[in-house]
Amino acid sequence: MQGFKEFHLLRGPVNETEGYTLFASHTVWASQEDFIAWTKSENFRAAHRNAGGSKVHYLGHPQFEGFSVVEGA
């Protein structure tokens, strides 16, 4: 997609007490507009078509958190 730069799937440590592992996806886009256009695209729908269809158990629906670069190298 236009403006897409990077994708990373991050895995946190296993929380033995609560019995879960936190995962987060991290993407880098050229602009917020490019990201929003992707979320409204057929590519987005196709990428998420089978979400929730696996045998993996989730604690809840994913929560979107957007960030902007304040300082970079």
Structure characteristics:
73 residues; alpha+beta; two-stranded antiparallel ribbon; 19% helix; 30% strand
Structural write-up:
The protein has 73 residues and is an alpha+beta fold. It has a domain at 4-47. The protein contains 2 helices and 2 strands, in the order ββαα. Strands 1-2 form a two-stranded antiparallel sheet. It is flat. The two termini are 25 Å apart.
In short:
With 73 residues, the chain is α+β, with helices and mostly antiparallel strands. It contains two helices and two strands, in the order ββαα. 19% of the residues lie in helices and 30% in strands.
The count of strands amounts to 2
Mean model confidence by pLDDT: 88
Helix amount: 10-25%
User: Beta-sheet strand percentage?
Assistant: 25-35%
Number of helical runs? 2
List the helices and strands and how they pair.
Layout: E1 4-15, E2 20-29, H1 32-39, H2 42-47
